[in-house]
Amino acid sequence: VFFVLVTSALGPAEGLAEETARSWFLRGKELSESGQYQKAAQAFQQAIQMEPASEEAYLHLGNSYFELGSYDAAADAFRHVLKINPSHSTALFYLGLSLIQQKKYAESISYFEKSGALDSDFKQLSLFYIGEAQSELGNLQEASETWRQAIKVNPSTDIARKTGTLIKKLTQEKGTKPWTLSMSAGMEYDD
């Protein structure tokens, strides 16, 4: 009798579906944190089936796909977040990263620009990746200028120091790309 009263107060199965979607979402986060990205993606998909407007679930689904190297699927998930919330700076940023991984450099730039404009936490990294995209498109002078802007955002960060090193290497060895990407937006240098 209590169960019937509680579910009636919540409306027809709305509360139950939300709770179940939340439990799938939390399970997905757990799996993701332990590096089980395929299983995490499946859990996030279950959460989305039950709550299709969950920008959190789509965002984490995109992160799982990114970690699996499924950049096209990651980009699709981040686009779903942006359909729900067009100003989601994290989704904008990671959509840009997904596009860079797919070598869609020109397309990635606008997402980084929007992300950096909406959220100061993404400004420096967004400028870095805009510079990377420009470099990949062969616009080395423009890339160098953009990287200098990234350094000016906060010269004391690791990204600023690494960007300075990158500019120096670029001027010494035209066309060399001494970095690799990771989901954490860090860079590792090939020496």
Structure in words:
- This protein has 191 residues and is mainly alpha-helical.
- Helices cover 75% and strands 3% of the residues.
- The chain contains ten helices and two strands; from the N terminus they run ααααααααααββ.
- A hairpin with a 5-residue loop joins strand 1 (179-181) and strand 2.
DSSP helix fraction: over 70%
End-to-end distance: 69 Å
Strand content: under 5%
Strand count, sense and closure of the main sheet? 2 strands, antiparallel
Contiguous helical run count: 10
Write out the strand line-up for the largest beta sheet, numbering strands in chain order: 1-2
Can you tell me the residue ranges where pLDDT is under 50 for at least 5 consecutive residues?
1-18, 175-191
| Helical/strand content category | mainly alpha
Mean pLDDT: 85
Order of helices and strands: HHHHHHHHHHEE
Number of strands: 2
- What sort of overall outline do the alpha carbons produce when their principal axes are compared? elongated
How large is the radius of gyration?
A: 20 Å
